[in-house]
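Hi C.,

You asked whether I'd gotten around to modeling the 437-residue construct. I have! Everything is below, sequence then structure, no commentary in between.
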Amino acid sequence: MRLPRRGRRTTAAAAIVSLALAITVGTQASAAPAPDEGPKDTVPVQQYEVADLDTQAERTELARTGTPIDEVRASSVVITADAADATRLRDLGYELTALPGTAVERNDFQAAAPSDYHTYADVLTVVNQTRTQYPNLVTSRVIGRSYQGRDIIAVKVSANATVDEDEPEVLFTHNQHAREHLTVEMALYTLEELTTQYGTDPEITELLDTREVWLIPSVNPDGKVYDQESTGSFRSWRKNRQPNSGSTNVGTDINRNWNYQWGCCGGSSGSTGSETYRGPSPESAPETQVVANFVRGRVVGGEQQITSHIDFHTYSELVLWPYGYTYSDTAAGLTADDAAAFRALGTALADTNGYTPQQSSDLYITDGSINDWMWANQGIFSFTFEMYPRTASGGGFYPPGSVIDRETARNREAVLLLLDYADCPYRITGRESTYCA
Protein backbone atom coordinates (compact mmCIF):
# COMPACT_ATOMS: atom_id res chain seq x y z
CA MET A 1 0.00 0.00 0.00
CA ARG A 2 1.29 3.42 -0.90
CA LEU A 3 0.31 5.83 1.83
CA PRO A 4 -1.56 8.96 0.69
CA ARG A 5 1.05 11.67 0.34
CA ARG A 6 -0.19 15.16 1.02
CA GLY A 7 3.06 16.51 -0.35
CA ARG A 8 2.12 15.51 -3.88
CA ARG A 9 -0.57 18.13 -4.00
CA THR A 10 0.16 21.77 -4.70
CA THR A 11 -2.01 24.64 -3.62
CA ALA A 12 -2.38 27.96 -5.37
CA ALA A 13 -3.09 29.85 -2.18
CA ALA A 14 0.27 30.01 -0.44
CA ALA A 15 0.38 30.53 3.29
CA ILE A 16 2.37 33.54 4.43
CA VAL A 17 5.04 32.08 6.67
CA SER A 18 7.12 34.99 7.81
CA LEU A 19 4.62 37.84 8.06
CA ALA A 20 1.29 38.17 9.85
CA LEU A 21 1.41 34.78 11.55
CA ALA A 22 -0.10 34.23 14.95
CA ILE A 23 2.36 33.01 17.57
CA THR A 24 3.11 33.17 21.25
CA VAL A 25 6.40 34.99 21.55
CA GLY A 26 7.24 36.51 24.90
CA THR A 27 10.53 37.72 26.21
CA GLN A 28 12.22 37.20 29.49
CA ALA A 29 15.17 39.32 30.52
CA SER A 30 17.95 37.34 32.12
CA ALA A 31 17.02 38.68 35.55
CA ALA A 32 13.24 38.33 35.54
CA PRO A 33 10.29 37.13 33.46
CA ALA A 34 8.53 39.52 31.13
CA PRO A 35 5.18 40.76 32.41
CA ASP A 36 2.02 38.99 31.36
CA GLU A 37 0.62 41.25 28.65
CA GLY A 38 -2.36 39.11 27.80
CA PRO A 39 -2.88 36.30 25.30
CA LYS A 40 -0.69 36.55 22.21
CA ASP A 41 -2.25 33.86 20.05
CA THR A 42 -3.25 36.39 17.38
CA VAL A 43 -0.27 38.74 17.43
CA PRO A 44 1.37 39.11 13.99
CA VAL A 45 5.01 38.08 13.75
CA GLN A 46 7.82 37.99 11.25
CA GLN A 47 11.37 36.75 11.02
CA TYR A 48 14.34 38.96 11.87
CA GLU A 49 18.06 38.52 11.47
CA VAL A 50 19.93 39.37 14.68
CA ALA A 51 23.46 40.54 13.89
CA ASP A 52 26.84 40.14 15.59
CA LEU A 53 26.24 36.85 17.38
CA ASP A 54 29.41 34.89 16.69
CA THR A 55 29.78 32.57 19.68
CA GLN A 56 27.87 30.00 21.70
CA ALA A 57 27.82 32.37 24.65
CA GLU A 58 26.38 35.25 22.62
CA ARG A 59 23.67 33.04 21.16
CA THR A 60 22.89 31.66 24.60
CA GLU A 61 22.52 35.18 26.00
CA LEU A 62 19.91 35.91 23.34
CA ALA A 63 18.13 32.63 24.08
CA ARG A 64 18.02 33.62 27.76
CA THR A 65 15.70 36.49 26.86
CA GLY A 66 13.12 33.79 26.13
CA THR A 67 13.58 34.12 22.39
CA PRO A 68 13.75 30.85 20.42
CA ILE A 69 16.36 30.77 17.68
CA ASP A 70 15.07 29.53 14.33
CA GLU A 71 18.40 29.37 12.53
CA VAL A 72 22.09 29.88 13.31
CA ARG A 73 24.20 31.60 10.64
CA ALA A 74 27.94 32.35 10.53
CA SER A 75 27.76 35.52 12.63
CA SER A 76 24.03 36.05 13.15
CA VAL A 77 20.81 34.18 13.91
CA VAL A 78 17.26 34.23 12.61
CA ILE A 79 14.38 34.56 15.06
CA THR A 80 10.61 34.90 14.85
CA ALA A 81 9.16 37.74 16.90
CA ASP A 82 6.25 40.13 17.13
CA ALA A 83 6.72 43.90 17.07
CA ALA A 84 6.73 44.27 20.86
CA ASP A 85 9.35 41.57 21.31
CA ALA A 86 11.49 43.07 18.57
CA THR A 87 11.35 46.40 20.40
CA ARG A 88 12.37 44.77 23.70
CA LEU A 89 15.32 43.08 22.07
CA ARG A 90 16.44 46.33 20.46
CA ASP A 91 16.16 48.00 23.87
CA LEU A 92 18.49 45.30 25.20
CA GLY A 93 21.01 46.31 22.55
CA TYR A 94 20.40 43.72 19.83
CA GLU A 95 20.53 44.74 16.19
CA LEU A 96 17.47 43.35 14.40
CA THR A 97 16.79 43.51 10.67
CA ALA A 98 13.38 42.41 9.44
CA LEU A 99 13.67 39.92 6.63
CA PRO A 100 11.84 41.53 3.70
CA GLY A 101 8.80 39.75 2.33
CA THR A 102 8.70 36.08 3.12
CA ALA A 103 11.45 33.50 2.92
CA VAL A 104 9.40 31.70 0.31
CA GLU A 105 9.05 34.75 -1.93
CA ARG A 106 12.76 35.49 -1.84
CA ASN A 107 13.56 32.16 -3.45
CA ASP A 108 10.55 31.50 -5.62
CA PHE A 109 9.27 28.66 -3.48
CA GLN A 110 5.61 28.26 -2.89
CA ALA A 111 4.88 28.22 0.80
CA ALA A 112 3.11 25.16 2.04
CA ALA A 113 -0.59 25.33 2.69
CA PRO A 114 -2.00 23.38 5.64
CA SER A 115 -3.57 20.92 3.19
CA ASP A 116 -0.10 19.93 1.93
CA TYR A 117 0.50 18.03 5.16
CA HIS A 118 -1.30 15.16 6.83
CA THR A 119 -3.66 16.25 9.58
CA TYR A 120 -3.75 14.59 12.98
CA ALA A 121 -6.83 12.63 11.89
CA ASP A 122 -5.04 11.59 8.70
CA VAL A 123 -2.19 10.19 10.78
CA LEU A 124 -4.52 8.00 12.82
CA THR A 125 -6.18 6.77 9.63
CA VAL A 126 -2.86 5.91 7.97
CA VAL A 127 -1.65 4.05 11.07
CA ASN A 128 -4.89 2.06 11.29
CA GLN A 129 -4.78 1.18 7.60
CA THR A 130 -1.15 0.09 7.80
CA ARG A 131 -1.78 -2.00 10.89
CA THR A 132 -4.67 -3.74 9.11
CA GLN A 133 -2.59 -4.43 6.00
CA TYR A 134 0.49 -5.63 7.91
CA PRO A 135 -0.85 -7.28 11.09
CA ASN A 136 2.35 -9.24 11.72
CA LEU A 137 4.60 -6.21 11.23
CA VAL A 138 2.66 -3.39 12.87
CA THR A 139 0.85 -2.82 16.14
CA SER A 140 -0.17 0.45 17.74
CA ARG A 141 -1.49 1.58 21.07
CA VAL A 142 -2.57 4.71 22.85
CA ILE A 143 0.14 5.52 25.39
CA GLY A 144 -1.67 8.53 26.87
CA ARG A 145 -3.55 11.66 26.01
CA SER A 146 -2.71 15.29 25.39
CA TYR A 147 -4.00 18.14 27.52
CA GLN A 148 -7.09 18.45 25.30
CA GLY A 149 -7.68 14.70 25.33
CA ARG A 150 -6.25 13.62 21.99
CA ASP A 151 -4.66 10.20 21.75
CA ILE A 152 -0.87 10.03 21.68
CA ILE A 153 -0.05 6.81 19.90
CA ALA A 154 3.03 4.62 19.68
CA VAL A 155 3.41 2.42 16.61
CA LYS A 156 5.56 -0.68 16.78
CA VAL A 157 7.18 -2.15 13.66
CA SER A 158 8.99 -5.47 13.84
CA ALA A 159 8.98 -8.87 12.15
CA ASN A 160 6.92 -10.26 15.02
CA ALA A 161 5.28 -7.10 16.26
CA THR A 162 2.65 -8.74 18.45
CA VAL A 163 5.32 -10.29 20.68
CA ASP A 164 7.63 -8.35 23.01
CA GLU A 165 10.90 -10.00 22.05
CA ASP A 166 14.32 -9.55 23.60
CA GLU A 167 15.64 -7.37 20.78
CA PRO A 168 17.23 -3.91 20.70
CA GLU A 169 14.59 -1.20 20.42
CA VAL A 170 14.82 2.13 18.60
CA LEU A 171 12.45 5.03 19.24
CA PHE A 172 11.60 7.85 16.84
CA THR A 173 9.64 10.83 18.19
CA HIS A 174 8.15 13.63 16.12
CA ASN A 175 6.27 16.92 16.43
CA GLN A 176 7.21 18.06 19.94
CA HIS A 177 6.92 21.53 18.44
CA ALA A 178 3.54 22.08 16.86
CA ARG A 179 4.55 23.92 13.68
CA GLU A 180 7.13 21.33 12.63
CA HIS A 181 4.76 19.30 10.45
CA LEU A 182 7.48 17.87 8.22
CA THR A 183 8.48 15.68 11.16
CA VAL A 184 5.07 13.97 11.13
CA GLU A 185 5.60 13.25 7.45
CA MET A 186 8.93 11.70 8.45
CA ALA A 187 7.11 9.29 10.76
CA LEU A 188 4.70 8.25 8.03
CA TYR A 189 7.53 7.83 5.54
CA THR A 190 9.44 5.57 7.95
CA LEU A 191 6.31 3.52 8.62
CA GLU A 192 5.69 3.10 4.90
CA GLU A 193 9.27 2.27 4.01
CA LEU A 194 9.70 -0.35 6.71
CA THR A 195 6.43 -2.11 5.95
CA THR A 196 6.40 -2.05 2.16
CA GLN A 197 10.04 -3.05 1.86
CA TYR A 198 10.05 -5.86 4.41
CA GLY A 199 10.62 -9.13 2.61
CA THR A 200 11.86 -7.27 -0.49
CA ASP A 201 14.77 -5.14 0.71
CA PRO A 202 17.36 -7.44 2.36
CA GLU A 203 18.65 -4.74 4.74
CA ILE A 204 15.24 -3.74 6.03
CA THR A 205 14.21 -7.39 6.32
CA GLU A 206 17.26 -8.28 8.39
CA LEU A 207 16.86 -5.23 10.63
CA LEU A 208 13.19 -5.87 11.36
CA ASP A 209 13.99 -9.51 12.05
CA THR A 210 16.38 -8.40 14.82
CA ARG A 211 15.07 -5.02 16.03
CA GLU A 212 11.89 -3.48 17.40
CA VAL A 213 11.05 -0.01 16.13
CA TRP A 214 8.76 2.46 17.90
CA LEU A 215 7.31 5.55 16.21
CA ILE A 216 5.43 8.32 18.02
CA PRO A 217 4.17 10.37 15.06
CA SER A 218 2.90 13.34 17.07
CA VAL A 219 3.98 14.11 20.62
CA ASN A 220 2.01 17.38 20.48
CA PRO A 221 -1.31 16.70 18.71
CA ASP A 222 -3.13 19.66 20.28
CA GLY A 223 -0.49 22.06 19.02
CA LYS A 224 -0.47 20.44 15.59
CA VAL A 225 -4.23 20.78 15.21
CA TYR A 226 -4.17 24.37 16.45
CA ASP A 227 -1.38 25.36 14.09
CA GLN A 228 -2.67 23.54 11.03
CA GLU A 229 -6.45 23.38 11.22
CA SER A 230 -7.88 26.14 13.39
CA THR A 231 -7.96 29.00 10.87
CA GLY A 232 -7.27 27.64 7.39
CA SER A 233 -3.70 28.96 7.47
CA PHE A 234 -0.68 28.23 9.59
CA ARG A 235 -0.33 30.04 12.92
CA SER A 236 3.40 29.42 13.62
CA TRP A 237 2.52 27.85 16.96
CA ARG A 238 5.29 26.03 18.86
CA LYS A 239 4.10 24.97 22.32
CA ASN A 240 1.36 22.69 23.57
CA ARG A 241 -2.12 24.09 24.35
CA GLN A 242 -2.10 23.77 28.12
CA PRO A 243 -3.28 26.89 30.00
CA ASN A 244 -0.86 28.43 32.46
CA SER A 245 -2.06 29.10 35.98
CA GLY A 246 -2.27 32.80 36.81
CA SER A 247 -1.67 33.84 33.21
CA THR A 248 -3.69 34.35 30.06
CA ASN A 249 -0.80 32.94 28.02
CA VAL A 250 -1.14 29.37 26.82
CA GLY A 251 1.35 26.60 26.35
CA THR A 252 4.56 24.94 27.50
CA ASP A 253 7.55 24.21 25.31
CA ILE A 254 7.55 20.43 25.61
CA ASN A 255 11.23 20.24 24.71
CA ARG A 256 12.18 22.33 27.74
CA ASN A 257 9.96 20.35 30.14
CA TRP A 258 11.95 17.14 30.57
CA ASN A 259 13.15 16.08 34.01
CA TYR A 260 16.90 16.45 33.66
CA GLN A 261 18.65 19.74 34.44
CA TRP A 262 15.22 21.36 34.08
CA GLY A 263 15.58 25.14 34.24
CA CYS A 264 19.17 24.79 35.41
CA CYS A 265 21.23 26.89 33.10
CA GLY A 266 19.39 29.68 31.32
CA GLY A 267 18.44 27.38 28.46
CA SER A 268 14.69 27.91 28.86
CA SER A 269 12.30 30.60 30.06
CA GLY A 270 10.24 31.02 33.21
CA SER A 271 7.90 33.45 31.44
CA THR A 272 4.58 31.97 30.34
CA GLY A 273 4.59 34.22 27.27
CA SER A 274 7.89 32.88 25.98
CA GLU A 275 8.07 30.27 23.26
CA THR A 276 10.65 28.46 25.39
CA TYR A 277 8.52 28.48 28.57
CA ARG A 278 9.61 25.41 30.51
CA GLY A 279 6.42 24.94 32.53
CA PRO A 280 6.04 25.24 36.32
CA SER A 281 7.82 21.93 36.97
CA PRO A 282 9.43 19.04 35.10
CA GLU A 283 6.92 16.87 33.24
CA SER A 284 4.14 19.36 34.00
CA ALA A 285 3.07 19.08 30.37
CA PRO A 286 0.94 15.94 30.03
CA GLU A 287 2.55 15.18 26.68
CA THR A 288 6.03 15.11 28.23
CA GLN A 289 4.82 12.81 30.98
CA VAL A 290 3.10 10.46 28.52
CA VAL A 291 6.26 9.92 26.48
CA ALA A 292 8.50 9.74 29.54
CA ASN A 293 6.22 7.11 31.09
CA PHE A 294 6.29 5.14 27.87
CA VAL A 295 10.09 5.18 27.82
CA ARG A 296 10.28 4.24 31.50
CA GLY A 297 7.87 1.43 30.72
CA ARG A 298 10.36 -0.10 28.28
CA VAL A 299 12.59 -1.08 31.20
CA VAL A 300 12.26 -4.87 31.34
CA GLY A 301 14.05 -6.90 33.98
CA GLY A 302 15.88 -3.79 35.12
CA GLU A 303 17.24 -3.07 31.63
CA GLN A 304 16.12 -0.32 29.27
CA GLN A 305 15.17 -1.99 25.98
CA ILE A 306 15.40 1.23 23.94
CA THR A 307 19.03 1.73 23.03
CA SER A 308 18.77 4.53 20.46
CA HIS A 309 16.49 7.45 19.67
CA ILE A 310 15.98 10.28 17.20
CA ASP A 311 13.75 13.25 17.98
CA PHE A 312 12.81 14.90 14.68
CA HIS A 313 12.51 18.69 14.42
CA THR A 314 12.73 21.42 11.80
CA TYR A 315 14.65 23.30 10.59
CA SER A 316 18.43 23.79 9.88
CA GLU A 317 19.64 20.36 8.67
CA LEU A 318 21.55 19.36 11.79
CA VAL A 319 22.34 16.20 13.73
CA LEU A 320 22.65 17.07 17.44
CA TRP A 321 23.57 15.08 20.53
CA PRO A 322 23.85 15.68 24.33
CA TYR A 323 24.50 17.58 26.35
CA GLY A 324 22.59 20.75 25.66
CA TYR A 325 22.77 22.19 29.17
CA THR A 326 26.58 22.59 29.26
CA TYR A 327 29.27 23.60 26.80
CA SER A 328 31.52 20.81 28.11
CA ASP A 329 32.04 17.76 25.91
CA THR A 330 31.91 15.58 29.02
CA ALA A 331 29.96 16.02 32.25
CA ALA A 332 28.22 13.95 34.92
CA GLY A 333 27.02 10.75 33.28
CA LEU A 334 28.74 11.50 29.97
CA THR A 335 32.27 10.10 29.83
CA ALA A 336 34.93 10.58 27.20
CA ASP A 337 33.99 7.18 25.72
CA ASP A 338 30.31 8.16 25.66
CA ALA A 339 31.08 11.48 24.00
CA ALA A 340 33.29 9.79 21.41
CA ALA A 341 30.53 7.33 20.54
CA PHE A 342 27.98 10.15 20.22
CA ARG A 343 30.34 12.11 18.01
CA ALA A 344 31.23 9.17 15.78
CA LEU A 345 27.67 7.93 15.38
CA GLY A 346 26.26 11.43 14.93
CA THR A 347 28.85 12.16 12.26
CA ALA A 348 28.11 8.87 10.49
CA LEU A 349 24.38 9.67 10.52
CA ALA A 350 25.07 13.12 9.09
CA ASP A 351 27.25 11.61 6.36
CA THR A 352 24.16 9.86 5.00
CA ASN A 353 21.97 12.96 4.64
CA GLY A 354 24.32 15.92 4.35
CA TYR A 355 23.29 17.48 7.67
CA THR A 356 25.80 19.21 9.96
CA PRO A 357 26.77 17.13 13.04
CA GLN A 358 27.52 18.80 16.38
CA GLN A 359 26.90 18.70 20.10
CA SER A 360 23.66 20.49 20.91
CA SER A 361 25.32 23.18 23.05
CA ASP A 362 27.60 24.13 20.15
CA LEU A 363 24.58 26.17 19.06
CA TYR A 364 23.50 27.56 22.44
CA ILE A 365 22.52 26.26 25.85
CA THR A 366 19.20 24.44 26.26
CA ASP A 367 17.96 22.76 29.41
CA GLY A 368 15.16 20.32 30.10
CA SER A 369 15.51 18.78 26.63
CA ILE A 370 14.52 15.29 25.54
CA ASN A 371 18.04 14.33 24.41
CA ASP A 372 19.64 15.17 27.75
CA TRP A 373 16.90 13.29 29.65
CA MET A 374 17.02 10.24 27.40
CA TRP A 375 20.76 9.87 27.89
CA ALA A 376 21.25 10.94 31.50
CA ASN A 377 18.10 9.35 32.90
CA GLN A 378 17.67 6.29 30.70
CA GLY A 379 21.05 5.62 29.08
CA ILE A 380 19.64 5.92 25.56
CA PHE A 381 21.80 7.23 22.71
CA SER A 382 19.57 10.14 21.78
CA PHE A 383 19.92 12.48 18.80
CA THR A 384 17.93 15.41 17.42
CA PHE A 385 17.55 15.74 13.67
CA GLU A 386 16.72 19.25 12.50
CA MET A 387 15.28 18.55 9.08
CA TYR A 388 14.99 20.60 5.86
CA PRO A 389 15.42 23.42 5.02
CA ARG A 390 18.93 24.53 5.90
CA THR A 391 17.84 28.19 5.97
CA ALA A 392 14.65 30.21 6.01
CA SER A 393 14.96 30.61 2.26
CA GLY A 394 13.68 27.07 1.78
CA GLY A 395 10.39 27.83 3.49
CA GLY A 396 11.43 27.85 7.14
CA PHE A 397 9.02 25.86 9.26
CA TYR A 398 6.66 25.46 6.31
CA PRO A 399 8.53 24.12 3.27
CA PRO A 400 6.39 23.52 0.19
CA GLY A 401 4.54 20.25 -0.08
CA SER A 402 6.49 19.39 -3.20
CA VAL A 403 9.63 18.65 -1.13
CA ILE A 404 8.04 16.32 1.42
CA ASP A 405 8.79 13.06 -0.36
CA ARG A 406 12.36 14.07 -1.15
CA GLU A 407 13.20 15.37 2.32
CA THR A 408 11.74 12.45 4.22
CA ALA A 409 13.44 9.90 1.95
CA ARG A 410 16.66 11.83 2.52
CA ASN A 411 16.77 10.34 6.04
CA ARG A 412 16.22 6.73 4.96
CA GLU A 413 19.85 5.69 5.29
CA ALA A 414 20.25 7.48 8.62
CA VAL A 415 17.27 5.61 10.05
CA LEU A 416 18.64 2.29 8.86
CA LEU A 417 22.13 3.09 10.13
CA LEU A 418 20.80 3.84 13.61
CA LEU A 419 18.86 0.57 13.53
CA ASP A 420 22.04 -1.25 12.55
CA TYR A 421 24.00 0.15 15.50
CA ALA A 422 21.14 -0.32 17.96
CA ASP A 423 22.64 -3.56 19.27
CA CYS A 424 25.66 -1.60 20.55
CA PRO A 425 26.21 2.05 19.62
CA TYR A 426 29.74 1.83 21.08
CA ARG A 427 30.55 -0.52 18.22
CA ILE A 428 31.14 2.52 16.02
CA THR A 429 34.24 3.39 18.08
CA GLY A 430 35.38 -0.21 18.51
CA ARG A 431 34.49 -0.30 22.21
CA GLU A 432 31.82 -3.00 22.04
CA SER A 433 33.86 -5.47 24.09
CA THR A 434 34.01 -2.96 26.93
CA TYR A 435 30.38 -1.86 26.93
CA CYS A 436 28.33 -4.53 25.15
CA ALA A 437 29.90 -7.86 26.10
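If it helps when you're writing up: Residues 4-38, 102-110 have pLDDT under 50 and may be disordered.

Thanks,
B.
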